[in-house]
Design brief:
It is a single chain. By secondary structure, the protein is of the alpha/beta class. It has 3 domains: 2-85, Alpha-Beta Plaits, CATH 3.30.70.240; 89-170; 193-333, no CATH class. Helix content is 55%, strand content 11%. The protein has 11 helices and 7 strands. Helix 7 links the parallel strand 5 and strand 6 (227-231).
């Protein structure tokens, strides 16, 4: 943790997010609050939220503003280095305190499960053991989610991780639980692949999960002769008529409702494939961060993609490497 904090103090950059939505319906405000909390944002002062700067967080806030606009609200965010009136170390401490509180809540629930595991050893039923293992599985998924947003490695997280390893070992002979939810139905204009051959497909610069996956899907299942172009959002109105824009505000193929661009493309072109459905859940989880799906593979895929963004020579090279990852992932699913 000390090393992470020292690095942040030296070259810290923050994203400050401001928004307002209509008072009704209340669910809109709750939805945005949950999205921010899921991403690991903390409330700094009043209606100001803060996240450590990263390309992933920058992209997340861009899409969040799009959602807020659809709710007839307003939102904006800025990148800042060094905030007046508060030290970077103090901001880090705020993040760590929030994560400590989150971990403490999980620890309390684990203590109760541990107590009941001990009761089972004294003669409890297998049925009760299965129920407890299902509960432990859900708590572990919650913990894994917290680790993703524990940006400065709070001490309680490391302690809790060791405790969880021990409890998993105790429960290794009990059956766990996994479950997935279906993708929500969203009305989309249907397209035919034959009308999109040999196109230039434009998307935002600095490709990440959804754009890499979508580009692979386009090249693999929609337009084998596709070429890709990277633009700024304000350039979308200057594209040639035969260009198709994806995963960019105002683009022909982009987020729709609670669907990420990859899912929207699948629906628009009526592509049905079991392997692609599994990939869609992973992409959705990493891109939308709404807890709709849970995949054990997601964290590993994201780690590889982060490595790609750090080592790629340019956007085209990053996209090419990312597409290769999804080709291999698809091969593993079919």
């Amino acid at each position: 943790m000390k090393r992470a904090e020292e690095k942040t103090k030296k070259d810290a950059a923050w994203l400050l997010f401001f928004y307002s939505v209509p008072a009704r319906p209340v669910s809109s405000r709750v939805k945005i609050w949950r999205r921010l909390a899921k991403a690991g944002a903390i409330q700094l002062k009043g209606a100001v939220y803060v996240l450590p700067y990263s390309e992933r967080h920058y992209e997340f806030l861009q899409w969040l503003i799009s959602e807020i606009t659809a709710m007839k609200g307003d939102g904006a965010f800025v990148k800042a280095r060094g905030l007046e009136g508060i030290k970077d170390s103090e901001i880090i401490e705020l993040f760590n305190r929030q994560r400590e509180r989150d971990y403490k809540g999980i620890e309390k629930r684990l203590v109760e499960i541990e107590r009941q595991f001990n009761n089972i050893k004294k003669g409890g039923t297998a049925k009760k053991g299965k129920r407890l293992t299902e509960l432990l599985s859900r708590i572990i998924k919650e913990f894994d989610g917290l680790r993703k947003i524990d940006f400065f490695s709070a001490r309680a997280g490391r302690t809790l991780e060791a405790k969880i390893r021990g409890m998993k070992a105790e429960a290794k002979n009990l059956t766990g639980y996994t479950g997935k939810r279906a993708v929500s139905a969203v009305a989309l204009v249907l397209r035919q692949a034959k009308d999109y051959q040999g196109r230039t497909w434009a998307t935002r610069k600095r490709p990440y999960v959804d754009r890499m996956a979508s580009a692979w899907l386009i090249k693999r299942f929609i337009d084998r002769d596709a070429s890709f172009k990277f633009i700024d959002e304000e350039e979308i109105g200057h594209l040639n008529r035969d260009a198709a824009a994806f995963d960019i505000r105002g683009g022909e193929f982009t987020h729709q409702g609670d669907l990420c661009t990859f899912e929207a493309l699948l629906k628009a072109f009526c592509i049905k494939d079991k392997g692609l459905k599994k990939i869609a859940e992973i992409v959705h989880e990493l891109d939308m961060k709404d807890s709709k799906y849970t995949s054990n593979e997601a964290m590993g895929i994201e780690g590889i993609i982060i490595g790609i963004t750090k080592t790629a020579k340019d956007d085209a090279n990053a996209l090419e490497k990312g597409m290769a990852i999804f080709e291999m992932l698809y091969a593993s699913k079919t």
